[in-house]
């Protein structure tokens, strides 16, 4: 297959949903339909098997949240699908936002009984920033759900996106009988399958087929009536509108029962965009350019506790990556050889021979790579749009055993490189201050310090309310500021200068006093 064909057949996406809507279940089923798993192995179960020695995963499991993002690649009907998993819990939303910068489209999963929920709204806002195309799966039709017409109205109203139903449910809960495919004019009868078996429910061609009345009884008539209404009132699927982010095709089903997923996947690989062009500070990069470019959207430490590795996840934007390639690490201006990149075929890490635009590769990070870093084959360009957020919560790390200071500093430095938490070292004292967006992040860091670095640390309150990255175009003023405001300044784990303010009023006063200094609450990496 040529480079262009390989590129065009890539589909790189993430699932967005409110916790509990069924993202994990959906992920498993997508893998099942992609042939990546044969049996009923669950994603969560498989993850913990690989990390059997790590208490940290135990914690993740017992909380029932998936904190660790991972990447899964599998072939489906001639296409190559890259599914980027994202943590569902709001405390890890930064990680999710950054992952969304690395996809070309998204799949939104909605609980039929609950409709549009708060996290879905937030994630949708993030997708909208880049007009990411979104397909929708309304899940849990096997339970009593809300009226589907009402649900679509809610999606349109709350999320401000047109809905184009592709399949339509026949009843819900105990009366759930299957879905009607509007374009194919065929009914797929509900036949719940557990675990690793694909649905084999009967297909009935044509809405007028008498077989439908035979099987559905009076529900057949109800379906015909409802569809007349739906087809009159809803939007027809328009691929252009979908690609521009203005319309979402909608599918109904039950992920846990392996139902309605094949319809979704078939249209997904057909219509979802392949690798899209990506903006940089200087120009747009087309995926079909022959020279390699990519950016790092995530760093994760100790994915495999036996190897104590840190992996940088890089999205390939153009060209191919070949094993052993030499790449320019643009931010530090150095060419580095990448001997052993990882790929994520069928959810197991394997060594990459060649990877294409849209693919994610994992490269070992020995501390020089940061989130947002661009790699090229020599050209000096930097991809834009990978955000970093100023934290809202601050704690001081406190050691139980003071002799372990070195391990603590090392552990915090490495965990903070993952980007979920920020580490600050004040210029005028030896504190280690951690900043996070969600409170659960502190617990996770404490737990990981214990299991991965053998350090017992606690996080206690500290007199910091907010932090801003600071910079200035006026070097003289900047020096003066650094001297006068030294007690409020700290260095973050990336080496950048940060103003840490005990109160918002203090920050405001500093901003007024130093108009030449920029105080920034978000920072773009790179
Ligand atoms: P996540 O938090 O979004 O990853 O959601 P999960 O995939 O963990 O699912 C949340 C709960 O809903 C679990 O107990 C699932 O077994 C259940 N669930 C998922 N899909 C379905 C479905 O189609 N029908 C029903 N009845 N339950 C489902």
From TrEMBL:
Transmembrane segments: none
GO biological process: regulation of translational termination
Localization: Cytoplasm
Keyword Cytoplasm belongs to the record: yes
GO molecular function: GTP binding; GTPase activity; guanosine tetraphosphate binding; translation release factor activity, codon nonspecific; translation release factor activity, codon specific
Binding site for GTP: 17-24, 85-89, 139-142
Alphabetical UniProt keywords: Cytoplasm, GTP-binding, Nucleotide-binding, Protein biosynthesis
Family: Belongs to the TRAFAC class translation factor GTPase superfamily. Classic translation factor GTPase family. PrfC subfamily.
NCBIfam families hit by this protein: prfC, PRK00741.1, small_GTP
Protein name, entry field: Peptide chain release factor 3
Encoding gene (name): prfC
């Amino acid at each position: 297959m040529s480079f262009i064909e390989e590129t065009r057949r890539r589909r790189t996406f993430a699932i967005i949903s409110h916790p509990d809507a069924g993202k994990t279940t959906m992920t498993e089923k997508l893998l099942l339909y992609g042939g990546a798993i044969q049996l009923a192995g669950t994603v969560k179960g498989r993850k913990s098997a690989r990390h059997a020695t790590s208490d940290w995963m135990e914690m993740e499991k017992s909380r029932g949240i998936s904190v660790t993002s991972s990447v899964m690649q599998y072939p489906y009907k001639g296409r190559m699908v890259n599914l980027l998993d994202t943590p569902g819990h709001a405390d890890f939303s930064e990680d999710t936002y950054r992952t969304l910068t690395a996809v070309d489209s998204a799949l939104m999963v909605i609980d039929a009984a609950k409709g549009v929920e708060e996290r879905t709204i937030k994630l949708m806002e993030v997708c909208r920033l880049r007009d990411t195309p979104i397909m929708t799966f309304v899940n849990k039709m096997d339970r009593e759900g809300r009226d589907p017409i009402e649900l679509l109205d809610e999606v349109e109203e709350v999320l401000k996106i047109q809905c184009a139903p592709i399949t339509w449910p026949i009843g819900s809960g105990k009366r759930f009988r299957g879905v009607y495919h509007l374009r194919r004019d065929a009914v797929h009868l509900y036949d719940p399958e557990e675990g690793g078996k694909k649905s084999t429910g009967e297909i009935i061609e044509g809405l007028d087929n008498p077989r439908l009345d035979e099987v559905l009884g009076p529900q057949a008539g109800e379906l015909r009536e409802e569809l007349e209404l739906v087809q009159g009132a809803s939007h027809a699927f328009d691929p252009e509108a979908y690609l521009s982010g203005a319309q979402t095709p909608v599918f109904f089903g039950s992920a846990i029962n392996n139902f309605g997923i094949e319809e979704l996947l078939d249209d997904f690989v057909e219509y979802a965009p392949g690798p899209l062009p990506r903006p940089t500070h200087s120009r747009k990069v087309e995926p079909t350019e022959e020279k390699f470019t990519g950016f790092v959207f995530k760093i994760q430490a100790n994915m495999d506790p036996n190897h104590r590795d840190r992996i940088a996840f890089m999205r390939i934007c153009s060209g191919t990556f070949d094993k052993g390639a030499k790449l320019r690490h643009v931010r530090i201006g150095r060419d580095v050889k990448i001997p052993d990149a990882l790929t994520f075929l069928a959810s197991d890490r394997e060594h990459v021979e060649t990877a294409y635009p849209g693919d994610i590769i994992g490269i070992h990070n020995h501390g020089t790579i940061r989130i947002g870093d661009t790699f090229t084959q020599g050209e000096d360009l930097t991809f834009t749009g990978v955000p970093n957020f100023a934290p809202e919560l601050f704690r001081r790390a406190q050691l139980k055993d003071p002799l372990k200071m070195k391990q603590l500093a090392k552990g915090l430095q490495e965990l903070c490189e993952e980007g979920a938490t920020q580490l600050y070292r004040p210029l005028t004292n030896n504190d280690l201050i951690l900043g996070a967006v969600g409170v659960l992040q502190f617990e996770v860091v404490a737990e990981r310090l214990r299991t991965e670095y053998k350090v017992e640390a606690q996080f206690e309150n500290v007199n910091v309310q907010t932090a801003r990255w600071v910079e200035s175009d006026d070097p003289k003023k900047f020096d003066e500021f650094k001297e006068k405001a030294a007690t409020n300044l700290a260095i973050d784990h990336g080496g950048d200068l940060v103003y840490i303010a005990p109160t918002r009023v203090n920050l405001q006063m500093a901003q007024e006093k130093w108009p030449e200094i920029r105080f920034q609450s978000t920072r773009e990496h790179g």
